[in-house]
Specification:
Length: 200
Amino acid sequence: MSLEAADLGSDPMAAFGRWIEEAKQKSGQANPNAMTLCTVGSDGGPQGRVVLLKGWDAQGLKFFTNSLSEKGRALAVHPWAEAVFHWDSLRRQLRVRGSVEVLPPEETQAYFSSRPRGSQLASWASRQSEPVADREAMEARYRDVEARFKDTAVATPPHWLGYRLCPMRIEFWQEGAFRFHDRLVFARADGAWKLERLYP
């Protein structure tokens, strides 16, 4: 099945939303919202890891993380990223590239409050991306945090932030026979989206 411009329409974020919803309904993946987030470290080297898309709107893709982590430090230096989604059963891939901005505190707090309590405690206990002696040291920190918040709601850690990836380029990839795939790319220029097809 080929992918044509008419299948996507003129609004790439609307098309993005349709592909995400189809992935949720048809991919069979446990986490169809999983995306590889690629950043550039302070040393100029590439970094990639899988994170979960937690929301999206016309302005971009939302995710949350510890700002003191490797990816948080990278974004503080180079606030640009690319997110890659892959749904093997649907024979589709999505790439979204653009600048990254920090979400308003109230949006981060609202999402943090919706997380399971154990995940909230883990956000305080983890010194994400820092070395740790062993598993027991990690669990000891978790127990300390658990005791700290024993009789109260878990506050949002000051280092825990929400981010929005603001798309400047969105590539829709559909697998084709004999590796002759369809690649349709929207690129933003002067406030408008331009669509072009690329060779596979």
